[in-house]
Amino acid sequence: MRPRPRLAFILALAAASLSPTPPALAAQDAKARTQQEETRQKLEGVRKDIDNLTKEQRETANARDSANAALAKQAEQVSAAAKAVRATDGDLQQRQHDLEQLNAQRASMEAGLSKQKDALGDLLRATYTLGRGSDLQLLLGDEDVNRISRALAYSRYFQDNRVEKIHGLLADLSRLQEVEAAITAEQQKLEATRAEREARAAELEKQRTSQAKLVAEADSKYKDQAQRIAALKQNEQDMNALVARLQKVIDEAAKAAEPAPAPKGAPAAAPVGNLRGSLPWPTNGPVHAFGSGVIIVAPRGSEVKAVARGRVVFANFLRGYGMMIIVNHGNGFMSMYGNNETLLHGVGDMVEAGEAVGTAAAPAGDNGAYFELRQGGKPIDARGWLSKKH
Known about the structure:
Blueprint (H helix, E strand, L loop, with lengths): L5 H9 L11 H18 L2 H19 L1 H66 L3 H6 L4 H76 L4 H32 L30 E4 L2 E4 L6 E3 L4 E9 L3 E9 L2 E11 L6 E2 L4 E5 L8 E7 L2 E3 L1 H4 L5
Antiparallel strand pairs: 1-2, 2-9, 3-8, 4-5, 4-7, 5-6, 6-8, 6-9, 9-10
Helix pairs in contact: 1-2, 1-7, 3-4, 3-7, 4-6
């Protein structure tokens, strides 16, 4: 996970449109930076307010349902284990890439050395053919001064060239040895990373098994369909209450801060309101309606991606929605991504459209990655805003 930037967080909430103003002059930039600093100083506690809100929401849910605490804790453990496996997979991929580059470098050097050895052999044979002996023999075996002079010049040239090629060959051999040592070291690192990955994967499976057991125990407490529907309604009410409080924090931040111009060169981001019918799908898989949003039955581990640029305002467990991440896009728009196995960002992180914010948990029947879109705190038809291509 990337570091959670405290300083830039508030401005993104206040600058609701997320669209940068035209490039300003140097004096205007200085003024804007001053305004940004004042805004940060005034509103540096907003992220803390959201963290406190999250904690209070969790405590309320735990008090109402004791199983919620165990489910939340287990979901966080699974998330941490899955994130560790994902990070190790990234390390493995990088080490494999480094090893392939070293092997390619070694092959290139070996080919070059082979050519150098052949060239040196040709030079030695030419030197022998030319002189068939030492420079002293040249002096004693011919009375033509011009022939002697030319022969000595050729002899010195071939000797100097021979020495130069030998030195180059030795230097390349030394570099090849260094590459060989680097390959050996990289192979050892690769094996160590693979062993680490196996250990982390085993821990992940252990946590997944414990989670599945807890979920089954929680589901078994519903005596009939009526109780299950009542629980779903309660979960939806919790979601609505959470979103309302988040929106209140965001609105208060916007009132206390004036939007400042974006830095020069910052890419323009189209407001979500202008993207109706063209937002990218957060992940791939069969889709069906669920509550106020949609369920996408995606394979476990599939990346769940932000549909638009925005700032993360919630990243935690929410009963009924699993590991949930909520992104504020400005102008009252929020997108929600639930039933994640792991979250890849935390509160305060800026995410770009198409950037992974989580990975999908294993689908169970028709259950899978949850997606919801809201405007002004109210759910809107997600499928009407997402691209037709899926």
